[in-house]
Amino acid sequence: MVSQLTDLTISQALDLLDKKEISSVELTQAHLTEMDRARFLNAYITETPELALQQAAESDKKRATGEKIGRLEGIPIANKDLYCTKGIRTTAASKILSHFVPPYESTVTQNLKNAGTIMLGKVNTDQFAMGGSTMTSYFGVTKNPWADENGEYNLVPGGSSGGSAAAVAAGLCMGATGSDTGGSIRQPASFCGITGIKPTYGRCSRYGIVAFASSLDQAGPMARSVKDCALMLNEMAGFDVHDSTVADFPVPDFTQALHTDLKGKKIGVPKEYRSKDLNPAVAAVWDKGIEYLKNAGAEIVEISLPHTKYALPVYYIIACAEASSNLSRYDGVRYTTRVDGKSLDEMYENTRTDGFGPEVIRRILLGTFVLSAGFYDAYYIRAQRVRRLIYNDFIEAFKTVDAIVAPAAPTTALSYEAMKNMKPVDTYLGDVFTTPSSLAGVPSLALPIGLAENGLPVGLQVIGKHFDENTVFQVAQILEDEAQFVKTPHYVKG
User: Fold this and answer.
1) How confident is the model at residue 53, as a pLDDT?
2) Is 160 one of the annotated active-site residues of the chain?
């Protein structure tokens, strides 16, 4: 029964909870048991079993007494360890914040609490969300629950939301919060065979989320189905007075867009995404997805996003520049781990050298360089101008199509060994298909479509117009229905 409970989708579990066929305590305990069994995956940084069972008991009491319940009442979830949680350690997977306990709650996690969710704990991420594998985490790497061809758990789950993706895929939570700066929800969703959406920039509040790149960071849900992501985004999204970048824009019920046909819809296929970096197995699954949409009545239109080739360098210039600014607050004076020195400057230097990992230091240095007086115009300002051209590409494309379908990642999940042997610049290529929509701020959802020849999942992304997540969900639901993807990884549950 435990494995059956941890295989449920959120919508299935809500139905059983409403019928009182299961309790939230049973559902929560099943996931806590699975977390014990799967600790070798290293998906969680901080587990909160006592809090989870207490919240679950309170949730069951609400149902029993007829009190008003939330729309996600009794559903156990995990939060990426970038989200501040009041009274619960929030580390951003870094040494410098390894003992930080926030005195306040992020808006997104508070919204989910208000909706009745149960928090199982905080899941692993690349340090300060900088990476595509969780290998930069101070707390060790997370293993992808999909085994390699030899049956070994040696594959990365993607990143930076790798802990979220692995936990959802392995049944260690029913859904998880992620964050996406340049692909950090969509790439791990593809690698782990789950669904995740980066909504329009400004759809969800960033208040209380440890910042990487402020003009790019966006909260989003990760779950086992398109409907589950819609259910979670319903609660996560909305205006917030604490965040000047969140849009005061109506939040529709995203589930209303599901299970509607695509007749009359035009779906764009960007020719620039047929790059030399695209694995043939991924290309084959992309073609399969296009065929599914044709069969559903959509018209397929080849489009051009001509500035795609500049997206990756533009992204890393802007993201690193903003990271350099955002991470300057970690100085050892206030809430971070401190390493003393003989002077204030030496204390700063010692604290940051000890507290930041190599990838974080690399990006801070890159960002500081492009913002320096001699290079600001040559790099940062030029990157911002090209970003506008990338934005305009999408605006122009959406004059003729309703949505765009493309690969989420150029390959299937890579091994740790392969990642270790890559140059840093080569690892950045994993974001080649996700950074354009991040720079444009448009919504993009990744979902599994099939398996490659090596037996690993391949995801596609559905990209939509600004604040048109409804069409994204509509197209994604058709793909999910047609693909009938088996979402169980090699990790065997008891």
Assistant:
1) 98
2) yes
